[in-house]
Design goal:
Number of strands: 22
CATH topology of one domain: Immunoglobulin-like
Strand order of the largest sheet: 11-10-13-18-15-16
Radius of gyration: 25 Å
Helix content: 10-25%
Strand content: 25-35%
Number of helices: 4
CATH class of one domain: Mainly Beta
Structural class: mainly beta
Largest sheet: 6 strands, mixed
Bound molecules: copper (II) ion
Shape: globular
CATH superfamily of one domain: Cupredoxins -  blue copper proteins
Length: 430
């Protein structure tokens, strides 16, 4: 298709005019006194709620047409996975904080109570709002003192997937778990015949010295606990879908330092939204891995057309390890004959591991309050990944929204040991 100069000129003028109108509306929404309600508030029944695996959604009350939320910034005791409990900071008793969910055009009011031992603020990452509501301590507001409650009020001017986090002592507060996701549904839901399964996953990374309960907020590298929604596999709840469903996964990353290439097995997907807005259809391409840099959201969509248990994980190999996979002595290929007895005299119960690879590390004895470097039990043995690892479980039919257990493969569709007859037939000499 060729575009004539005149067509190009016409469409440029039209686009310019449209942009002008849009920016005027946007400006009217962003400056001056609080605008009237952009639209009547829509109840949660007007949209398919987003599921936050291992998490929850922040409740609200409707007061004179405004959705009123209450966020409490506070210390929380949190279990990363069975065996590892940490002293974190979060919101409303959780890290990540509860999912904030509303609809484009909603007028919202957030009361933020500070129960931390130091001041804080909330920055609404990606939202368009009056500058004074942006939550940057010192720049747009005074920090919220210990014990005080501040009010934030604005209109959700656009749909999308956003985040919230403090903009005071960011390094400490974010590293300790003060992160959360925001989903604003479009006022007019896009038309589509497929059932939608909508999930939100926040990537995070922690440095938790072996045996300790307090994550190290000073860490710049060597993060040893990698999480989705602050859970490390095997504690990550699976995402589920039925064959034919549209699966939307909203990925966010507010970890301190690392970007995460999140890989999904079994499907190709497209990035349909970022925290900047929808990606035009003409600008999308198929992917199996999406990089989620620090401080961004990436929304991926796919049609679940194949049943099975499909792994979804960060593709950085150290990000699918748990605590004990870091800072260990490299014994690969070493002659460790007799080492157990000799070291055992000094360290009772010592067991040398890792000389033939790390696949047996799940068997090692663990210090108190720490988790094995490897994941959990699978239907074929140990799944030797932990950390930022979860599953998309697709079934012909689901019984509710819980974990359907392991996939039962049709006969003849599982990799298995080759028979001698097969080897001979195909001329393979192992
Ligand atoms: Cu990663």
């Amino acid at each position: 298709m060729s575009i004539s100069r005149r067509t190009l000129f016409r469409s440029t003028v039209a686009a310019g005019a449209a942009a002008l109108v849009t920016s005027k509306v946007a400006l009217a929404q962003r400056v001056g006194p609080p605008p009237p309600l952009a639209a009547p508030p829509l109840p949660p029944t007007a949209y398919t709620p987003v599921v936050m695996p291992n998490g929850s959604t922040l409740p609200f009350e409707l007061k004179a047409g405004v959705k009123v939320f209450h966020l409490v910034a506070e210390p929380v005791t949190h279990e990363i996975a069975p065996g590892l409990e940490i002293e974190a900071w979060g919101y409303n008793g959780a890290t990540p904080g509860p999912l904030i969910e509303c609809v484009e055009g909603d007028r919202v009011r957030f009361y933020v109570t500070n129960k931390l031992p130091e001041p804080t603020t909330v920055h609404w990452h990606g939202l368009f709002l009056p500058a004074g509501m942006d939550g940057v301590a010192g720049l747009t507001q005074a920090p919220i003192p210990v014990g005080k409650t501040f009010t934030y009020e604005f209109t959700m001017t656009r749909a999308g997937t956003f985040m919230y986090h403090p903009h005071f002592d960011e390094m400490t507060q974010i590293a300790l778990g003060m992160v959360g996701m925001i989903v604003v549904h479009p006022r007019k839901p896009p038309r589509g015949s497929r059932r939608v399964r909508d999930y939100a996953l926040m990537a995070h990374e922690w440095k938790i010295p072996i045996g300790q309960r307090r994550p190290d907020p000073m860490a710049m590298n060597d993060f040893n606990v990698l999480t989705f929604n602050s859970k490390a596999f095997p504690a990550t709840a699976p995402l589920v879908a039925e064959v034919g469903d549209l699966v939307r996964i909203r990925l966010g990353n507010l970890g301190p330092m690392d970007h995460h290439p999140i890989h999904l097995h079994g499907f190709a997907f497209e990035v349909t939204w970022t925290d900047g807005g929808p990606v035009p259809k003409s600008a999308r391409w198929p992917e199996t891995t999406v990089l989620v840099p620090v401080g961004t959201t990436r929304v991926i969509e796919l049609v679940a057309d194949a049943p099975g248990d499909w792994a979804m994980h960060c593709h950085m190999t150290h990000h699918v390890m748990n605590q004990m996979g870091h800072d260990a002595l490299n014994l690969l290929g070493a002659n460790v004959k007799g080492l157990d007895g000799r070291v055992g005299r000094l360290v009772p119960g010592y067991m040398t591991m890792g000389a033939s690879g790390m696949g047996d590390m799940h068997a090692m004895a663990l210090p108190k309050n720490s988790i094995s470097m490897l994941g959990g039990k699978g239907p074929f043995g140990v799944i030797d990944m932990g950390g930022m690892f979860t599953n998309l479980k697709v079934r012909e039919k689901l019984n509710g929204t819980g974990d359907p257990g392991w996939y039962e493969h049709p006969a003849g569709t599982v990799a298995s040991e080759a028979s001698t007859a097969d080897l001979l037939r195909d001329g393979i000499r192992p």
